[in-house]
Design goal:
The chain has about 220 residues and is mainly alpha-helical. The chain contains 10 helices and no strands.
Length: about 220
């Protein structure tokens, strides 16, 4: 009998992180091979050599599992960028996006994004696990640039929303209309970088003042 105020011990066995990783890897493989139509919790569990019960202890639905896959992909590549300059940070962000598409995770992520308009639960999960992650990372890069004096102020919410949609949207549009996921070249990354830089309000920062001082000599 436990005394009042004591915490009950957790029920069931603790989760094994190795099983988490195996299930996420299996989910990516199933999505790459068969797409959303054949993406089932049974297929993923079988591929991982785990039980469906162990999968459901972690994620209550295949949509939730898909969201975990998307978040894993996004956070694995997009976090921790700080090159010392806004241009360098954005170049690294775009290069990270390119690496996502070139890796085995690219088709899986594009498959999920393509299905989202037809599945409200998946759409909501991908909003939180892809869009919000990309938006948060872009907001961090902008804040770093403001601190360095490269930008005069943080972006407004609407401006940040549109730039995030551009970052995510070009990925989907390119895969549909122009190339296969692994065919994004360095020139495309540079062009996208310059368009993003042109969309940012650069006037008024310390960097501009330094350039003006040099130009006035």
């Amino acid at each position: 009998m436990t005394a009042q105020g004591d915490t009950e011990p957790p029920k069931g066995r603790p989760k094994d992180p190795r099983v988490d990783a195996a299930l996420l890897d299996a989910a990516i493989e199933v999505l790459n091979e068969s797409g959303w139509a054949s993406f089932t919790t049974t297929a993923v569990a079988r591929r991982a050599g785990a039980s469906t019960a162990s999968l459901y202890r972690r994620w209550p639905s295949k949509q939730a599992l898909a969201g975990a896959v998307a978040r894993h992909i996004a956070l694995d590549e997009l976090g921790g960028i700080d090159t010392g300059s806004l241009e360098g940070d954005l170049r690294e962000l775009l290069s990270s996006k390119r690496r996502i598409l070139e890796n085995a995770t690219g088709p899986a992520l594009l498959s999920l994004m393509g299905q989202a308009p037809h599945d409200e639960e998946l759409r909501r999960i991908l909003h939180d696990d892809v869009y919000a992650v990309v938006r948060g990372q872009l907001e961090t890069l902008i804040a770093q640039a403001v601190t360095r004096g490269e930008l005069p102020a943080p972006l407004g919410a609407a401006h940040l929303d549109v730039l995030t949609l551009v970052l995510v949207g070009t990925t989907v549009a390119r895969s549909v209309f122009l190339t296969r996921p692994g065919e994004v070249d360095a020139d495309t990354v540079e062009t996208e970088l310059h368009l993003l830089l042109a969309a940012l309000p650069r006037g008024g920062g310390a960097a501009d003042e330094r350039r003006g001082h040099v130009g006035g000599r």
